[in-house]
Design goal:
The protein has 415 residues and is α/β, with parallel strands linked by helices. Helix content is 38%, strand content 17%. It folds into 2 domains: 150 residues, Rossmann fold; 224 residues, Transcription Regulator spoIIAA (2-Layer Sandwich), CATH 3.30.750.200. It starts with a strand and ends with a helix.
């Protein structure tokens, strides 16, 4: 066993663990030896004993990446791990730890380091320093740690500014058992949605990958700039005419010519974040389009793309029953026209404008569910205790109370 273990959670049985493979690519580039271990969360769920057992069979240095939904689960298991193996060095990374890095280091002494943002270039540098016994850490971008009982938070450029190389697919045995291969063609977001934290934690501009590199990555096994999408589709048609793919779209950036080109190059599904059926809500969250424009885009997309998905959110802190009524009626209408719809309870994002303005209204409930996250009922008691004790760290499991909560929840449950 190497003295460094990289651990990633796998949410879907057939979905390739892309984040771990990007990190592995960066580590290999620096000629570092490590074990890559993929934890089958899709099978084990929130079982602390199974995760602890999995972590116990790790090296002296353990690097773990996770999203916000798994943060209390990971913290609970690491607490137990460090008590048994006090000399293990724990490194956390990913979206979940990034947003509350300083708070985690302050509250949980068993976490040695947190890497904010993309760790592809940062993690190898940190591992080399640890292995060399060096205490010079102030030049490692985005690193948060304790030094002489003081929290040190190094300069952080932004989540995706360290653009990763092609994923290390060779690290996965029998790669073809997977049928879901996410591909990043760009990084960052230029939009201003007030409920989302991508604006504060990622670049204010879009950083593009070379399209030939993207196609080469596809061979080994999307829509802000129309010119790039046309070029991408042309490359796919010429080099891989039988491939099928899906992507995210945005209202206002899609037209008939583009949809036709995407369809001919193999696009079978497109996903839109519409968020609400109320123009009042859309204006407050700064989506930049009206519901009329969204409906037009959805119907136009359905003309060319087999599967069109419209995602909606409820429980905005300023949402009224009338606002939600518009969302519910629109969802029924779109379903009748063959468009798939999703409804998610708003998940707080602690770097978002909405969070800063309404965090005082957050509350914890086991009754509110969303199709994109597990309920508190699935969490071990030890994790729920952490969530209740540290709401500023585990905010993901909280909800906003608009004052109309009982009525809106009743409307959600009614046919």
């Amino acid at each position: 066993m190497d003295n460094f273990t990289l651990i990633q959670f796998q949410y879907e049985s057939r979905g390739v663990p892309l984040g771990a493979l990007y990190l592995a690519s960066g580590l290999e580039k620096e000629n570092l030896k490590f074990d890559l271990k993929i934890y089958p969360f899709y099978k084990n769920g929130y079982d602390l004993d199974k995760l602890y057992s999995f972590l116990s069979d790790s090296s002296d240095i353990v690097a773990i990446g996770c999203w916000s939904d798994l943060l209390p689960y990971v913290i609970g298991a690491l607490d137990k791990l460090k008590k048994r193996f006090p000399k293990k060095i724990i490194i956390l990374g990913g979206v979940g730890p990034t947003e509350v890095a300083e708070e985690i280091i302050a509250k949980f002494n068993f976490v040695n380091f947190i890497i904010k943002g993309c760790g592809v270039g940062v993690l190898p540098k940190l591992i080399k320093r640890i292995q060399a016994g060096s205490h010079r850490l102030n030049d490692i971008d985005g690193l948060v740690y304790k030094q002489n009982n003081h929290i040190v938070s190094n300069y952080y450029k932004g989540f995706y500014l360290n653009i990763p190389d092609t994923p290390a697919y060779q690290r996965i045995d029998n790669i073809w058992r997977y049928n879901n291969f996410p591909i990043f063609t760009s990084f960052g977001c230029p939009y201003l949605c007030t409920f989302c934290d991508s604006r504060p934690v990622s670049p204010k501009k879009v950083i593009y990958r070379d399209l030939n590199s993207v196609v080469e990555e596809i061979k080994l096994i999307f829509v802000i700039n129309k010119k790039r999408v046309f070029e991408f589709c042309k490359l796919l048609r010429s080099q891989m005419p039988n491939i099928t793919w899906d992507c995210y779209g945005r209202v206002g950036l899609i037209d008939e010519e583009l949809l036709s080109t995407m369809s001919k190059s193999g696009c079978k599904s497109i996903y839109y974040g519409v968020e609400s059926g109320s123009n009042v809500i859309l204006k407050k969250i700064k989506k930049g389009f009206t519901i009329e424009e969204a409906i037009k885009t959805l119907f136009l997309s359905k003309k060319y793309i087999k599967s069109v998905v419209a995602s909606f959110i409820y429980l905005f802190p300023f949402e009224t029953p009338a606002d939600f009524y518009h969302t519910k009626i629109l969802s029924y209408y779109l379903k009748s026209k063959g468009i798939y719809t999703q409804l998610h309870a708003l998940t707080p994002a602690n770097q978002s404008e909405v969070y800063f303005n309404y965090k005082k209204d957050l509350f914890l409930s086991k009754k509110i569910n969303s199709s994109c996250r597990s309920t508190l009922n699935a969490m071990p008691k030890a994790c729920i205790k952490l969530i209740r004790k540290y709401p500023d760290i585990f905010y993901y499991y909280y909800n906003y109370n608009s004052g109309y909560l009982p009525k809106i929840i009743k409307m959600v449950k009614s046919p």
